[in-house]
Write a structure and sequence with these properties.
With about 240 residues, the protein is mainly alpha-helical. The protein is about 80% helix and about 0% strand. It contains eleven helices and no strands. Helix 1 packs antiparallel against helix 9, helix 6 packs antiparallel against helix 7 and helix 10 crosses helix 11. The model has no long low-confidence stretch (mean pLDDT about 85).
Length: about 240
Amino acid sequence: MPVGIIINALSVLLGGVFGALGGKHMSDGFKTGLNMVFGACSMTMGIFSIAPMKNMSAVIFAIILGTALGLLIHLGDLINKGAKMMQTFIVKFIPNTSEGMSEKEFDATLVTVIVLFCASGTGIYGALTEGMNGDTSILISKSILDFFTAAIFAANLGYVVALIAIPQFVIFFILFLAAGFIYPLTTPNMILDFKAAGGVLMLATGFRMVQVKMFPTADMIPAMVLVMPLSWLWMTVIIPLLS
């Protein structure tokens, strides 16, 4: 059972409903202050995941190579286009009902929210981790953040935010199933390096949330695919050559 994924989807659903109902009572200062705390929490989760890594050189190489690949294929732009398609579908059911926001602003913000909930490095990492070894801690921690994040966005966008829980669940569940086939091919050290790469993405996400530096987190996602093969290569080929 993908317990973490279910909890994460429910957090977005309930947060979206809560924010749409009580958004009028949230001040701008309250929203900004919470967002800063969300960023700090994301960085804390990242540091916790990075600490146990076994092959730093392999992880760093995977992050650099994966990000370069993402930038070359414009992965961030492709994800935004996919989110735009989701946005077009979602607004058919719940159109723009927000006051003081133009249709263009509404669409742009909704695309941002879809990317945040459906294609974040933390979510992808959490879904794969749960599928590999049943560890739900990343997604449950993310769910706490997502509940309040969804509430804040729903305060401006309305109930449409709650519907994002559906594509989020579908995407994460597919990753969960795929991870089950990958796990038998891994070793404990490869898993630790995989978690470390995910931690780097969470750290970068935290910096984006507090608006210190806008890291290309969507373009960094290929690192999650490359890190385990590079970790295996480092342990079985590179280290014996160096010793």
